[in-house]
Write a structure and sequence with these properties.
With about 400 residues, the chain is of the alpha+beta class. The protein has a single domain, classed as Cytochrome p450 (Orthogonal Bundle), CATH 1.10.630.10. About 45% of the residues lie in helices and about 10% in strands. A hairpin with a 5-residue loop joins strand 1 and strand 2. The longest helix has about 30 residues.
Length: about 400
């Protein structure tokens, strides 16, 4: 009998329980919407599927591996501009318009501002004194403020969009709660885009409005996607990555004293933690042979990033954190045409954030026992709900 995808964890940094119980790299998986699909756990096969255009990323073809309230409605009526759930050439059109905003060069230009934002939050943290919760004081506000400035979203509205995005990602909500959150965030983005029609500024959303290549409905969808993705993923990496380094003090010290570069620390944390729990998911457009199995047209395949990034065939001692190891090539940002658009921005935010935090607070430590830190196994994106610390 095929298993359901596990989402709960016995230890905070390891993949969900049972993920490695079956050694087969491709095996049957029961989806909670009744579909019988597949899960891929090997690095090579995961990378292969992500690069293979015989596997579609179209949202309306995708089945729910675990119950996601509100997703049924979204599948039935995909929102214009939500390019994450599209295939080329529709997907290519949006990526082409946005790629120039997220180049390595453009992100490097933002680095001084990111350093300033991080320093301001650490100043406030130090002034308030211990104990502190690093999620609301450090991990969440830094990427939120950065993406707000980049998009042209008023940071004063953060409580509204952070609440709505958290609701959409929570696995225990009702359909009504999820749909209400999606509707609220869509209405907010529509109001913001309409204001930029009459009063454009020097920001990404204004550029899309004045560029004239997208409809207002498409810009609303693009803005919705970038705002949620731009703060949720990095915020959870900053929180969970800090927790991991606090539990590995020798490796935190290597970051602090420069023995290991911040770049290497970030890449290893991305590999080791792999916070995307529920996919990515692709649907076969035709019959495809994969790892000795035949994926039939119409069957959905879950690529387990936590498993692929701990494949011993690709990464030595994969279940251990080694910040000095070469973790490049990991799949934390995906692979192929759908590889994360904002990956360079996320890397800089983490690089600057981790280095500054552990340099400013060399005595940083948990204020509770590690088993008391509440983890986000109830969310589509893994992390910690809070991280109490002292110094």
């Amino acid at each position: 009998m095929p298993d359901f995808l596990p989402t709960t964890r016995s230890t905070p940094f390891d993949p969900p329980d049972g993920l490695f119980a079956d050694p087969r790299p491709v095996r049957r998986l029961a989806f909670q919407d009744g579909h019988l699909g597949w899960i891929v756990t090997s690095y090579d096969l995961a990378k292969s599927v992500l690069a293979d255009q015989r596997f579609s990323n179209r949202l309306e073809l995708r089945h729910q591996v675990v119950r996601r309230p509100g997703i049924t409605r979204v599948r039935e009526r995909p929102q214009p501009g939500m390019f994450l759930g599209m295939d080329p050439p529709q997907h290519t059109r949006y990526r082409r318009l946005l790629t120039g905003q997220f180049t390595v060069r453009r992100m490097k230009q933002l680095e001084p501002r990111i350093e300033e934002i991080v320093a301001d939050h650490l100043d406030a943290l130090e002034a308030a004194g211990p104990p502190a919760d690093l999620v609301p004081t450090f991990a969440r506000p830094i990427p939120s403020l950065v993406i707000c400035e980049l998009l042209g979203v008023p940071y004063a509205d953060r409580e509204r969009f952070q609440r709505d995005s958290a609701t959409m990602l929570r696995l225990t909500n009702t359909d009504e709660e999820a749909v209400a959150a999606m509707t609220s965030l869509t209405v907010y983005m529509a109001e913001l885009v309409q204001r930029k029609q009459t009063d454009p500024a020097d920001d990404l959303l204004s550029g899309l409005v004045t560029g004239g290549e997208l409809t207002l409905e498409e810009i609303i969808g693009v803005g919705f996607l970038l705002l949620v993705a731009g703060h949720e993923t990095t915020a959870n990496m900053l929180g969970l990555g800090t927790f991991a380094l606090l539990e590995h003090p020798d490796q935190a010290e290597a970051l602090r004293n420069g023995t290991v570069s911040a770049e290497a620390v970030v890449e290893e944390l991305l590999r080791y933690l792999s916070i995307i729990q529920l996919g990515p998911t692709r649907t076969a457009l035709t019959d495809v042979e994969l790892g000795g199995e035949v994926i039939k047209a119409g069957e959905s395949v879950v690529i387990s990033l936590p498993a692929a990034n701990r494949d011993p065939e690709r990464f030595p001692d994969p279940h251990d954190l080694h910040v000095g190891a070469d973790a490049h090539g990991h799949l934390a940002f995906g692979h192929g045409v759908h590889q994360c658009l904002g990956q360079q921005l996320a890397r800089i935010e983490m690089r600057v954030g981790y280095r500054a935090l552990f340099t400013r607070f060399p005595a940083l430590r948990l204020a509770v026992r590690s088993e008391e830190v509440p983890v986000r196994d109830d969310m589509a994106i893994y992390g910690v709900h809070s991280l109490p610390v002292e110094w």
